[in-house]
């Protein structure tokens, strides 16, 4: 899986113990990356045993999901909601 991650990708590892992740932080990250020539932000959600050392070493950032336990299917929905809010913020649109 890691083989297909190129240098033009930014990889964010989502962990339960890491830097708190907010839509505002992601909005700033998106704006900062827009001028760097990077194509994608990849979010990696670990399974029951977390993420491998190889993934953690490749990650540009380690971000934390809210302090609740989510099955990975629900964690993906939480990530999508945070992305939606971040993009709206970066466009200057109101959140509500």
Topology of this protein?
Layout: E1 9-15, E2 19-20, H1 23-33, E3 40-45, H2 53-58, E4 61-64, H3 72-90
Parallel strand pairs: 1-3, 1-4, 2-4
Helix pairs in contact: 1-3
Please explain how this structure is put together.
This protein has 96 residues and is an alpha/beta fold. The chain has a single domain (8-90), classed as SPOUT methyltransferase, trefoil knot domain (Alpha/beta knot, 3-Layer(aba) Sandwich). It contains 3 helices and 4 strands. The chain has helices at residues 23-33, 53-58, 72-90, and strands at residues 9-15, 19-20, 40-45, 61-64. The chain has a 4-stranded parallel beta sheet with strand order 2-4-1-3. Helix 1 packs across helix 3 (72-90). The longest helix is centred in the C-terminal third of the chain and has 19 residues, at 72-90. The model has no long low-confidence stretch (mean pLDDT 76). Keywords: Methyltransferase, rRNA processing, S-adenosyl-L-methionine, Transferase. Belongs to the RNA methyltransferase RlmH family. Pfam families: SPOUT_MTase (PF02590).
**Count of domain modules:** 1
Q: Which value, in Å, is the CA radius of gyration?
A: 14 Å
**Helix share of residues?**
25-40%
Any low-confidence stretches, pLDDT <50, length ≥5?
none
Treating each run of at least 4 consecutive H or I residues as one helix, how many helices? Answer: 3
Distance between the termini: 37 Å
Residue share in β-strands:
15-25%
CATH class: Alpha Beta
Structural class: alpha/beta
Question: Would you tell me the overall average pLDDT?
Answer: 76
Shape: globular
The overall strand count is 4
Order of strands across the biggest sheet? Answer: 2-4-1-3
Main sheet record: 4 strands, parallel
**N-to-C SSE string, H for helix and E for strand:** EEHEHEH
User: CATH H level: which superfamily?
Assistant: SPOUT methyltransferase, trefoil knot domain
